[in-house]
């Protein structure tokens, strides 16, 4: 009997629109990241936004700490290939300026914006320009009265902070908002999202904040975000890493692809290698990832070092290589053995076939050489 992965039933949430990207309401789970350049350096920031877009970022957030940065933000938005979210704290005038300067959404905490008239002005600017607001709650910056009430950051305190902010927005007749309730502690973060998901139908932006460097942060984020996605919770996500933000997008997509929630680009299955390998598997995978980074069509590639597990993986791949002996390896396409090629041909052969498939050429590769032993 053929086995199928379980289908994830996503939580029902209302929908917002971040520029051209729909979030919530059954829309595909979007992948976000945030620039780490100096916002006043427009050229560097635009270059980073483009790099993030190239690897699959649907939405990019930019920090706007000053009115000068708000002016630069306008130029960044004008050159961006994806919707840009303005990240603002404290000064409501910056939020208004960003709304006027082309932001696709605002990320604020109503509590640190200040007086009622300031929050009302931000809400009005968002309504005037058709922008949603993301309320960002962080376990490390909860209001003093909540810490006194609960004694320490916990899921109840974080959810109360989120709902308190929602009440403020709704008192200004603003309902086009989303939430995030992030923490660096894995189980605290997951529990806060689970509790909040029961209390609201607003879209939820997933993330484990301050998750760490590339390796530790990838592991922590993958576990936490994966736990929530498995339960149907989450409408958009950001993997927070102390690393090149391009890596955040790559990890975000890897999470979604591994859980069969979205597909994009090549998916390379590769063995961890051992002494049976017939060629340089690690180097081959690294080179193919670089060469095929521009491919958008979902294509599965299997790069296997030997014929122990290789043929089995090849049955489920669009293009597959299995290491053999004497400088030769087997090549498969759509599960069919096409023949043998020299190991020096692997990169060119795989790349050419993947690009042909991506371009819509469904005709299988011409069989090469003999498949006899």
Automatic annotation (TrEMBL):
Entry cofactors: [4Fe-4S] cluster
Cofactor note: Binds 1 [4Fe-4S] cluster.
Function: Converts 2C-methyl-D-erythritol 2,4-cyclodiphosphate (ME-2,4cPP) into 1-hydroxy-2-methyl-2-(E)-butenyl 4-diphosphate.
Residue stretches making up the IspG C-terminal domain: 267-355
GO biological process: isopentenyl diphosphate biosynthetic process, methylerythritol 4-phosphate pathway; terpenoid biosynthetic process
Keywords from the UniProt entry: 4Fe-4S, Iron, Iron-sulfur, Isoprene biosynthesis, Metal-binding, Oxidoreductase
Residues reported in the UniProt entry to bind [4Fe-4S] cluster: 271, 274, 306, 313
GO terms assigned for molecular function: 4 iron, 4 sulfur cluster binding; 4-hydroxy-3-methylbut-2-en-1-yl diphosphate synthase activity (ferredoxin); 4-hydroxy-3-methylbut-2-enyl-diphosphate synthase activity (flavodoxin); iron ion binding
Keyword Oxidoreductase: yes
Family statement: Belongs to the IspG family.
Protein name: 4-hydroxy-3-methylbut-2-en-1-yl diphosphate synthase (flavodoxin)
Organism of provenance: Candidatus Anaerobiospirillum pullicola
NCBIfam families registered for this protein in UniProt: ispG_gcpE, PRK00366.1
